[in-house]
Structure formats: C-alpha cells, structure tokens
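ARCHIVE CARD
SHELF: 3
SLOT: left
DATA:
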Amino acid sequence: MLTFAVRRLVLAVPTLLFISFVIFMLLQLAPGDPMAQVPLTVPPDVKEKMRQALGVGEPPLVQYWKWLVQVFWLEPKVFIDWLTRDSALLGWLPDTQLYQGELRVISWQTRSPVMDIVIQRIPQTLWVVGMAYVVGILIALPIGIYSAYRQYSVFDQSGTFITMIGFSIPPFFTGPLLIVIFSVQLGWFPSIYDTTHVVNDWESLKFQLQQMILPVMVLALQTTAQISRYMRASMLDNLNQDYVRTARAKGLSEGVVVAVHVLRNSMIPVITVIALNVPSIFGGAIITENVFKVNGIGQLLITALFANDLPMVMTLTFIFAVLIVIFNLIADILYGLLDPRIRYD
C-alpha cells in the first residue's frame, strides 16, 4: 500500500504540470485585457507600463514559467514564513524569513496576491460547503442502506421519489424557493449570509448556525440525492451475492451480515463518488454562494470570470485540479482498507 501511494504521488507531479499548462494556454486564448477597467483618462504609456508590470506583454511560455515559479516556489516560502511567525501551532519557532519580497501571483482585479485572497475566502466556503457535504453524507448513507434492505417498500419508493426530485432541481431554483418560504414568508432564517459575522459567544454561534441552514440545505439536498442512490444500488448488488447467503447459513445475525459483510463491500464504489465529489462540490457551490451572498471560493471564481481576472481563474482552477488528484489517491487507498482482496503491494 505504501509503495502504491508513493508511486501515485510521484505520477501526480507531471499530471498536475500538464493540467496547469493546458489551463494556462486555454486562458491565454480567452479574450480579456487587464487594462480594460482602467479609466480612459490614464495615458496609453502609463497603461503600457502597468501591462508590463503585470507581465502581460511577455510571451505565453515566459508567463507560464513565471507562474510556476511563483506558485511552487514563492508561495510555499510565504506559507512557511506564516507558519513560523503567525500560526498558533508553529509560531514559537524562529522566523524563517524565506520570502524576500519577490513578485507573487497578482490579481488583475484587486492588484493583490491571489493566494492571500483565496486564503481569506476558504473559511467561509468550509463553513457552508464543508458542513453541507458532511450533512449530506450522514443523511444519504442510512437512507441508501435501508432503502436497499427494504426494497420496493413504502420507504424505498418515497425515498426514490424525493431523491430524484432533489437531484433534478438545480440550486438556482431551490435557493430562491427556500428564501421565499423560510425567509420572506416565515422569517425563520436570514436570506443573506453575513461573512463579517464573528463567533465569540453562544448568541453569535446561534446566529451563525441560523444563517448556515438555508445554503447548507440547498447543497446537502443534491449530495444526499446522489450518494443515497449509489449506496442503494451498491447494496442491492451485494445483498444477492453468494457470500451473503453463506454468512446467513452460518447462523450470523442479520445485523452482522448487513453491517459487517454487505456494507463493507458496498462502500467501495460509494467511496469513489464521495471522494471525487469533494472538488466538484466546491465548484457546484458557485451558484449557491451567489444566491445567498456567501463570500467564498465559488463567488470569488465567478467574480474573477466576469472581471477577466485570468491569474485568479488560473489559480482557482488549478486548486480544483489538485483536489481531484488528491482525492483520487485517497479513494484508491481506501479501496485496499475496505476490501482485503484489493492490495497494491
């Protein structure tokens, strides 16, 4: 297992480099000028100096090489300096001072380092998107297991109907619908997510939970619908296998047969869906974050697209690619842990 994990990590490096090159070249073909939002009163020679300062006037391969150096060399040094200077975990260590003021990846829209903006937005996304994904998984797995065990029952048919509706309705419809019902008419929850809210006591925590309920419900609905269907189908495939009949013939209780034997083997394809949906849920939260005004990664990406902020779009897209590669590896490793027949060493 260890050899397989190391081999996959080594192969991930050229994979990510190729992905980053393709993304960069595709964005180079996209129309857009970082000086488009500069006032018309600015002289052309000043605009040209600003364009040169941003590195736009250089050949694409030179721009790509500088982006690689900034992302893989300068940003890690900035992160290490932050760990040894400001973090609570390693702040007691001597300040490394590795970063010496070199040019980092700069956003065309804000003229500030891209990674600083991304790090500021990540907590808001984790609060909403991360919680929604966890809630969706915790609801979906029991529903899928019980629906498969009680196939064609009233619970199974009702669950199938509800999950198909939840998977079919897009977030841009369920979001405003929940706002109209629970915010406008009933007044139970706020319709706009306050990203400046700070949790420091019980009342602030209560308000934080209240404003999280609606966006979490929208995102968790699709997660629950998808994963519960996969869980049900996988459980049905294994419930009719020979090893299940053998376990029952040995006198094992039904709970042990389902929970130990059937569930463990049924989780293998479901893990793929859960692991690979982690990056996609961040991308899928773009609409939900804009509906509820959540100042997270999704809203940052859509704002950068509208502003033709190519460095921001490039960095966020590459982060999604890194997440896909990492969670692919995690899913493959979990295969071997769940199924003894699967071993990579």
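SLOT: right
DATA:
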Amino acid sequence: MLRSVEQRGHEAVSLKNQPWRISDNGTADEVRALFGQLVRASPQNIALTPSTSYAISQAAHNILRSGRVSSGEIILVLQNQMSSNVYAWQRICRESGARLVAVPQPQPDEEADRQPKRQRTDSSLSGMVLSPWDHALEAAIRLHAQSTRIAVVAVPHFLWTDGSGPINLHRLRSVLDEVMQGQRTVLVVDATQSLGVVPIQAESWGIDWLACSVHKWLFGPYGLSLVYVAPEWSQEPVTEPIVQDEHNRLGADGDICLPFDLDVPGYSEDFQEGAKKFDAGGRVNPILMPMVARALKQVLDWHPDRISTTLAPLTAQCAEGATRMGLHVPSWHAPHFLGIGPNVEDIDGEIQGHDPPCSQSLAAERWADAAAANMKRNGIHVSSRAGVLRVAPHVYNLPSDIDAFLSALATFRRNHR
C-alpha cells in the first residue's frame, strides 16, 4: 500500500470521531470512474463489494436465477484456482445439477521449462502467442461441448499459485462463441492477481463479470473488491443483489432515506440503474473510498504497461536464477510473479526423509513450506502455494534483493538436503 494511501486512511479514520462531517462527496463515483478507466468500461457498469468471494457468489447467484445454468451442463474452472472463484460454483452445481469440471494444470515441457518466457504486457496482449493454459482450456472446451452445453467458464487471468498464464481472455470468448454456436457461455474472471500490472479490456473482450480485490496490484487497503458487470446483467429483471438493502435502491443516494409506504407495506424495491444494483449492503465505506481513489489514481498515472516493464526484469531474474539451480519455473509466467518448485532430487529427498514415504505432491508441498519458513528467518518473505514458492517482486524491490533471495534459496537447498 502506498504511503499516500495510508495517509488518506489516517485522515478518514479520524473523521469518525466527528461523524457529522462525513459525506460521500462523490468519492464512490470517483472510484467507479477510475476503475472503469482501468478495465476500459463505463463507470455505470462498476459495482462495489467487500471481497472477490462476495462478488463471485453474487455472479453465481444471478447466473442461476437467470436460468443460464441447468442440470447436466458444465462449469469450467482451473486446477488449483483460487478458492474464492471455486466455492460459489461448487454450490451452484449442487443446487442446479450442473457439473463442475477442473482443467488440469498443463504438464511442462522439459525443454521449454529450461527457457522461462517473460510476458508481453502491452495492449496487444490479446494477439500474443498462446500459453499452455490457453491450449488446455480450448481442448477442454471443445471436448466437453461435443456432449453438453458449457454454461460458465470461471477463470483467473494468471494462476495465483505460480503465475502461470496468461489466459488470453479475448480469444477465450471467441472460442466459446464459436463452439457454443449462439448458446452464450457466461465468462467470469477473477483479475485480482494481475489487474494493475497487465491491461484488461472487460467490455470489448466479452467478459460478463470481473472482480478484483484492491489490496493486491491496485495498491489499496483490504476490504473492497471492484466489479465490472456487463450491462445485460444489470438490465435483466430477474437479477438482484444477494443482500437486500436500501442503498442500492432508486432514490436512496447518500443520506436520503426512502419513505415507508403503507400500501406496500414497506419500501420501494426499484433498483438504481447499472451495476449499482449489485453494490453490497450498507453505506459506502467513508474510510476505504478515499484510500482506493488515491491508489487507483497512482496506478493510472504510472500505467500498467510501465509497472510491468519495471517488474518483468526482476521476475525474469528470479526465473533465470532458479532455472540455473535446476528448479522448476513455469514456461509461461506473469511479468510480476512466478512459482519456483523443487526438482526431482529435492522431491526424492523429501520422500526419503518422511516415514512413511509420502506422495510426490505432498513432498513438493513440504519442500515449499520448509523453503518459505527458511526464507522468513532470513528476512525474505515469499509464500508457499501448492508445492511452489510464489515469488512476487514489487515496485520497491531492486536487483540486489533478487540476488539475496537466490543466494538464500541456494543455501537452503544445500543445507536442507
């Protein structure tokens, strides 16, 4: 989080001691407009929710209400996909009789693995060479479409565990439209791991719902996920927010309260226009909004292309150093983070050191857990995720930081064996 964002937070928190001074002052609309610029969409199509899991749950709820998923149809996700974009689909499948299908993570080609690729991240991303995830997804789509309808594809832009990807979202929509022949598949995207570094054009790429938590690469605080909702979902009469509340009702702007109507009895149920219909319950958070507005302004000022250009050499330095050690890195990975996994010798060492012997996947997880703990003791903070070390250089890092990480990783491997 930027220091300027932190300062806005302190100022906003202090206002709570004089709540009569608090007013929205258009900050929420400013956040919608700034996020709209980032995803190339109208501010009218941006909703405010407390988390990406909330946003995805709301999308799933309305997809089911609209009759867009039925018994026997398929919802596609990726293996090891972030749970916030999986749990809601598990529930929808239980309720509807649809079937959840996970596309297995592509197995790396050994030669390609020794030559990790640094991603292009400019606006021509949609025309770049396809990643292994693109090929795996298209194969799964074409296979399953032979026997049933694919109702939903819910995916990230990059896999959160190891940075593998990207998924070419623009082409994915084209493939779905071609294969489903007029039976539109709903495309739901969790962009939390990349938006702010890698450009996304939500509207022109045919995305139906896109959610992004602001605490990652939007440099903001915890507690807010910004959501793009394609206009047809706001205009659909059967869609609704998952929390019944006054603030997203027509006429209830700011501190204006709707009158109680004895003839109803109750309050007017007409929704505000556009994606405000899907705002979470409660008034707009007067602490978060100024912080998020400040953060989004900085992201737009720096611009995602420039942020990725800054981070890509550091990530490539990580990948090249790990590859020289014989460790595994994805052959296609994000410009701003990647996963480093153990090699065969590391895995064999973990298996032999465990009684009774464990599986290869559990051995990889044990290795990554031990490596992350060792890094932390050396003042280097990386995460253990699904059997790999997730390494995410940030804009404050220098090449010397990467050198320190690689040196510590080499020392860990020697000592751990």
